[in-house]
Design a protein that fits this description.
This protein is of the alpha/beta class. It folds into 4 domains: about 10-225, P-loop containing nucleotide triphosphate hydrolases (Rossmann fold, 3-Layer(aba) Sandwich), CATH 3.40.50; about 235-320, Translation factors (Elongation Factor Tu (Ef-tu), domain 3); about 325-430, Elongation Factor Tu (Ef-tu), domain 3; about 445-625, Rossmann fold. The protein is about 25% helix and about 30% strand. It has 18 helices and 28 strands. The strands form 5 sheets. Strands 7, 8, 9, 11, 12, 13, 15 and 16 form an 8-stranded antiparallel beta sheet that branches. Strands 2-3-1-4-5-6 form a 6-stranded mixed beta sheet, with helices on both faces.
Length: about 625
């Protein structure tokens, strides 16, 4: 298998190009033998060179866990830490081929803390080999991986019951595990499920049928991989090309580059540009120095268009008569992959195909129990939890449900401060209200309202610890502005909690929602032409940044009242610090909940070194100067 049957390299390359490629993932719990199985696949398919085999024999003596035998896991576990610990940490991709197919296999970690790495490998796979140690049976991590691979759209699973040699090839053990898994998997929408008894170390039922399992009449692993039908209908669906780059090498050429996500395209085809909705026709399909008569799903090409239409990165070129949906509110299934909890109301960056926008999880509808699939209530998401949530984006995006197209329905969430990937999601459907609700055109706008009041509307946002003097300074400033004839309103943290936000507590998620609501109210007041003063502890940078982004450039002024904690606690006007120190008041900023200093406040004041009147005057001078 996998040998060179062609007489020269050109014939060999042509032979390989004609083969179908299957991408699959191996997953399971720790020490189930994933790396060993992939090593065995590489060995049996004759994809190991002589020098690699010699190096493997040497490494097996140094790092191996199989005694005098070759440890095939070392072919895949390339990191020093992996070899020392005997585990997989990173996702390792390997390539091999048989006479029928080419394969790209992702070996993914089994440890719970590396679940995000496993999800990465599953995101592009067509089939999953889910390994189970015959001695241990189904474990919690097995159940988690099953839910993730099905969530990621994988509909073909091989249940590889490995290490059968360690249970004396007992048919009862295999049949019991197969029955347990089938009962657990239930109706997961699988197209194929094949259980195979294996020994990766000895090669039983990998390439050749083992005489030690005469009771098993199914295919070997290689036979199943070579014959399973994983072809989808992407190439027969309507054309979609997410634009990745606008190619403008000179004035006479403007092309739109991307990888075709669905369908096919020919010169002269009528297409629509989304989200703008403009229509035109395809001028040419360019690939390097050639012009193609046709291109299909999976091809990376450059399209030129017959008309001068506005197309940017993140837009999509689609078939004119079968466009995908455009929306800004969705129900999605989300895998949370960060140590920090997901808090509804906090904004993240969302990357969907080539589009990047700001997104906010508005509500956690329910979490999924990893063992039973039961729906559980929850206000936050912790590491490796799966949930169905509602999500809104800052602007409409072009999408299709993940079950229809993984490219157009799968997204990641990115932390806006660290730029770490914190979540992976799959769009289930758009919320109907996102397509039914539109901005109502108003004859009187912000500019007219501000002109009537003879002032420039602003949001002056005071942030600082409890007792720092925020409300005192804000109150003095409003009195001064009011005396000068300015139209103002002061939103104070305590006052707002008596009405608009009386339903919110002081947990992190409630604080995020508290500030989200206040930011939206302040935005409306600025739109009304007012100078609005906001006095809130607002301890988190992410929420202050979210508030800032609600306003036009120059409208938001952040004032950090940086009075030291010791001075704030000394004042303790409301007795809150004393209660927090006694443990009677949980989640109190400065004591058992953090305050994140502003990165770039427009002004920093300190009421411990200046009087409130002096601080208010400093803010007034700043506002008047702007």
């Amino acid at each position: 298998m996998g040998q060179l049957h062609a007489t020269n390299i050109s014939d060999y390359l042509e032979e390989q190009r004609g083969k179908e490629t299957l991408r699959f993932i191996t997953c399971g719990s720790v020490d189930d033998g994933k790396s060993s199985l992939i090593g065995r696949l590489l060995f049996e398919s004759k994809c190991i060179f002589d020098d690699q085999l010699k190096a493997l024999e040497s490494d097996s003596k140094r790092y191996g866990t199989q005694g005098e035998k070759i440890d095939f896991a070392l072919l895949v576990d390339g990191l020093e830490a992996e070899r020392e610990q005997g585990i997989t940490i990173d996702v390792a991709y390997r390539f091999f081929a048989t006479d029928r197919r080419r394969y790209i296999v992702a070996d993914t970690p089994g440890h719970e803390q590396y679940t995000r790495n496993m999800a990465t490998g599953a995101s592009t796979a067509q089939l999953a080999i889910l390994l189970i140690d015959a001695r241990k049976g189904i474990l919690p991590q097995t159940r988690r991986h099953h839910r993730i691979v099905t969530m990621m759209g994988i509909r073909h699973i091989v249940l590889a019951v490995n290490k059968m040699d360690l249970v004396n090839y007992d048919a009862g053990v295999f049949q019991r595990i197969e029955a347990d898994y089938t009962a657990f998997a239930g109706d997961a929408g699988l197209v194929s499920l094949q259980a195979i008894p294996l020994s990766a170390v000895y090669g039983d039922n990998v390439l050749r049928r083992s005489d030690k399992t005469p009771w098993y009449q199914g295919p070997t692993l290689f036979d199943h991989l070579d014959t399973v039908n994983v072809t989808d209908a992407a190439g027969r669906q309507a054309f979609r090309l997410p634009v990745q780059w606008v190619n403008r090498p000179h004035l006479n050429y403007r092309g739109f580059c991307g990888r075709i996500a669905e369908g096919s395209v020919r010169p002269g085809d009528a297409v629509r540009i989304l989200p703008s909705g403009r229509t035109t026709t395809v001028g040419s399909i360019d690939f390097w120095q050639d012009q193609l008569p046709e291109a299909h799903a999976g091809a990376s090409v450059t399209l030129t268009l017959a008309d001068e239409v506005d197309v940017s990165r993140g837009d999509m070129i689609v078939a004119v008569d079968a466009p995908p949906e455009v929306a800004d509110q969705f129900q999605v299934k989300l895998l949370w992959m960060a140590e920090e909890v997901l808090v509804p109301g906090r904004s993240y960056l969302l990357k969907l195909h080539t589009k990047e926008v700001t997104a906010t999880v508005m509500e956690i509808r329910y979490r999924e129990d990893v063992n039973t699939g039961a729906h559980l209530a929850g206000k936050v998401l912790n590491l490796n939890e799966i949930a169905v949530v509602t999500l809104t984006t800052s602007q409409p995006v072009v999408f299709e449900p993940y079950t229809t197209n993984r490219t157009l329905g799968g997204f990641i969430l990115i932390d806006r401060l660290s730029f770490a990937t914190v979540g992976a999601g799959m769009i289930e459907f758009a919320l109907r209200r996102s397509s039914n609700i539109h901005w109502q055109a108003l004859e009187v706008g912000k500019a007219q309202r501000a002109l009537q009041k003879h002032q420039t509307p602003r949001c002056i946002w005071f942030t600082g610890l409890s007792g720092s003097g925020k409300s005192t300074v804000a109150n003095l400033l409003e009195k001064r502005l009011h005396a000068d004839g300015r139209h103002t309103y002061l939103l104070d943290g305590d006052n707002i909690r008596h009405g608009l936000n009386r339903d919110l507590g002081f947990t992190e998620e409630d604080r995020v929602e508290n500030l989200r609501r206040v930011g939206e109210v302040a935005k409306l007041m600025v739109d009304a032409g007012l100078v609005v003063l906001v006095s809130f502890i607002s301890p988190f940078r992410a929420e202050r940044r979210m508030a800032r982004e609600l306003f036009a450039a120059g409208e938001f002024i952040e004032i950090h009242v940086s009075t030291p904690l010791a001075e704030c606690e000394k004042r303790d006007v409301k007795g809150l610090y004393a209660k927090a120190r006694r443990g009677e008041l949980k989640n109190f900023t400065g004591i058992d909940s953090p305050y994140e200093l502003p990165d770039a406040a427009e002004l920093v004041i300190d009421t411990s070194s200046q009087s409130p009147e002096e601080c208010a005057l400093a803010v007034l001078r700043l506002v008047e100067g702007r």
